[in-house]
Design brief:
single chain; 132 residues; alpha/beta; five-stranded mixed β-sheet; three-stranded mixed β-sheet; 2 helices; globular
Length: 132
Amino acid sequence: MLHAVPLPGEARIDHLLVGPAGVLALRTLAARGRRLRITGESAAVGRDRPVPELRLARRGAERASFALATAVRPVLAVVGAARLVAEPAPPDVRILAEGDVAGLARLGGVLKPSDIESLYGRARNRRTWLRA
């Protein structure tokens, strides 16, 4: 797992996981005991204005996929939500509450150990992200 992967400009990937289940780009969203409603591309925490969190999660995964030359799946990890409502559930972005994050370890194997080491080595190299 890598944290706060810097991308060109001011963007970053919150967390990048490389393992047997493949490469996952996690975007985190803090709800702090408030209700979170996800509709379409946007997420609204409490009464705050909706933010295009799903689009941002996809974009981070796309940039990581380009930089690493492999498939990267987007994940939106919600922290501290009193209630989570996703209508309809997006087919391409996995949405996880903080208690569901451990379930990522049970995803089926996609990568061999040698592929994991190679991808993790590339991901750790800061020059990899210059072209993201």
